[in-house]
């Protein structure tokens, strides 16, 4: 991570910008797969949920209530493991509050992922605490990072997921379940 090739500003929601969840509702489904209504969430189900995500203090981090539902494939690792496990077996219309510990969410915060970089590597509009940025490693991998502190000649950045180390609460309502037709 010490060999940075490029850095650019990133905008978007916590979950969306970090690409930890894939929203399939805006993507076309393979036309050779026929979907039919599902009875309950199981491995391979195409599930649409409404959710509100809060932290330990009850502060809302993100919500899609009254918006497009989040759609994912159950068992494909597209949402955090603790939430995915808790949704198994639910039916359309079910509501559930799920508390996810860091080890089943975004993991523990790693202090080695907090680094100081030369200030001249950053665009002027990125020099603000809590700005989300993307950096590219020498291997071309894009990694999200947050500006944590601005010093005289350096910028302290945190490459941990902003939700790492946090216990999260998801209030979820199951909106739709589809299964591959047999």
CATH architecture tag of the largest domain? Roll
- How does the helix and strand content classify structurally? mainly beta
The ordered H/E elements are: EHEEEEHEEEEEE
Number of helices: 2
Strand content: 35-45%
Mean pLDDT: 83
Give the distance, in angstroms, between the N- and C-terminal Cα atoms. 46 Å
Report the major sheet: 6 strands, antiparallel
User: Tell me, what's the shape?
Assistant: elongated
Please estimate the helix content.
Answer: under 10%
What ranges have pLDDT less than 50 throughout 5 or more consecutive residues?
A: 1-29
Whole-number total of structural domains: 2
Radius of gyration: 19 Å
CATH first level of the largest domain: Alpha Beta
Properties at a glance:
single chain; 182 residues; mainly beta; Thrombin, subunit H; Chitinase A, domain 3; 2 domains; six-stranded antiparallel beta sheet; five-stranded antiparallel beta sheet; 2 helices; 11 strands; elongated; disordered N terminus
Fold and architecture overview:
The protein is mainly β. The chain has 2 domains: 4-10 and 108-158, Thrombin, subunit H (Beta Barrel); 14-101 and 172-180, Chitinase A, domain 3. The chain is 6% helix and 38% strand. It contains 2 helices and 11 strands. The chain has helices at 14-17, 81-87, and strands spanning 4-9, 35-37, 46-54, 60-63, 70-73, 95-100, 114-118, 132-137, 142-150, 154-158, 168-180. The strands form 2 sheets. Strands 2, 3, 4, 5, 6 and 11 form a 6-stranded antiparallel beta sheet that branches. Strands 1-8-9-10-7 form a 5-stranded antiparallel beta sheet, with no helix packed on it. A hairpin with a 3-residue loop joins strand 9 and strand 10. The protein is elongated, with a radius of gyration of 19 Å.
């Amino acid at each position: 991570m010490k060999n940075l090739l490029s850095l650019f500003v990133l905008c978007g929601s916590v979950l969306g910008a970090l690409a930890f969840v894939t929203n399939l509702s805006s993507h076309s489904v393979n036309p050779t797969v026929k979907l039919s209504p599902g009875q309950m969430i199981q491995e391979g189900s195409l599930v649409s949920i409404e959710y509100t995500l809060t932290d330990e203090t009850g502060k809302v981090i993100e919500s899609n209530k009254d918006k497009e539902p989040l759609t994912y494939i159950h068992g494909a690792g597209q949402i955090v493991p603790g939430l995915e496990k808790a949704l198994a077996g639910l039916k359309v219309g079910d509501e559930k509050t799920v508390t996810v510990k860091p080890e089943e969410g975004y993991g523990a915060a790693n202090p080695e992922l907090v680094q100081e970089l030369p200030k001249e590597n950053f665009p002027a509009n990125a020099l603000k605490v809590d700005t989300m940025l993307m950096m590219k490693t020498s291997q071309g991998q894009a990694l999200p990072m947050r500006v944590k502190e601005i010093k005289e000649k350096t910028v302290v950045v945190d490459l941990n997921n902003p939700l790492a180390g946090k216990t999260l609460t998801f209030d979820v309502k199951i909106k739709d379940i589809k299964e591959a037709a047999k």
